[in-house]
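Margin note: ligand = magnesium ion.
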Amino acid sequence: MGKNVNKSISSIDSFWSLFLLILSRVVQLFWPNSARQVPDRPDTVVYYRNSIKNMEEVIETIEEVSQKKNVFLIPQIHESRLYYNKVKQAEAYPAWMPPTWHITSADEAAKKLEEIDFPFVSKSHEGRRSINVRLVKNREEALKEIEASFFGEGLPMEFGKRQKGYVFWQEFLPDNPYDWRVTVIAKKYAYAIRRQNRKDIPLASGSGFLEYHADLNAELEKLLSYAVKFARENNCLLCAVDVLRDRKGRMVICEAECTWGRGGVDYKGRIFEFKDGKWIPTVYTLDRQYDLIAKAIIDGEFESAALHS
Ligand SMILES: Nc1ncnc2c1ncn2[C@@H]1O[C@H](COP(=O)(O)OP(=O)(O)OP(=O)(O)O)[C@@H](O)[C@H]1O
Ligand SMILES: [Mg+2]
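Resulting structure:
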């Protein structure tokens, strides 16, 4: 579908793009509360933003929408299923991640302690801002995790939830004073935010120490290319990856979400485009990322990216 072709775009919770689309007057809009409101027509694009508050509900609706053969979904259904679930991400992207173990029995977890180095990272299957991420420093702390998760009240999580019946452990990658959150849109636009670690613990997400980039440099270009490679190889139309360096200095991904929160609207920094084999700045700053997404929808860029994955 080319530029200015009339499309009906169904949108779930995407205020900024809706605003632009209304202004642009080239699309028909729906705001579906349920899959029933989305017409099964080839000119229908559904763009939505995942919401962690009612994730299960959102996924249920999206699963239903994905049954409609003619509708084009952004993100795609396979991306949504992985969003906000680190266990599923580790299963889907093992080659990109540090060594990770999802263990569902206490015996097996105890056995793993014989070979794993301390400290290691322990995570709940869902979470954000490092709230459900723990650094396990020694055997005693690890045994407490096993006790709580398999025999006790569970490990405390955000929103009063509890992690029970499994542990999700990951090799700790030292010497990372920061991580990079790289967002890739339609496999060709990207930006990176450098997040310095918290003062008390070497975890970056949620620290609030953020750096944005308006200009390209060699390190940034390598990082953006790595994230685009991830998006292309895994057929992700909207993704945000958290990049660290492993012990050999290679880039790895400690988390790979398939969309992002709305917080980005206040950010400065620039979105870059990979064009003709090189990175160039776009006119879009991060506070206009939803405008870029809307434009890319209208221009059919997501659809061509999906076709040429
Ligand atoms: N294997 C690891 N080794 C070292 N540090 C890590 C590792 N995994 C995660 N971290 C650090 O912990 C932080 C939080 O981890 P992760 O991204 O997995 O969880 P999150 O709370 O879901 O984050 P987000 O808010 O980005 O969604 C990362 O930003 C990174 O700084
Ligand atoms: Mg993260």
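Residues 7-82 form one domain.
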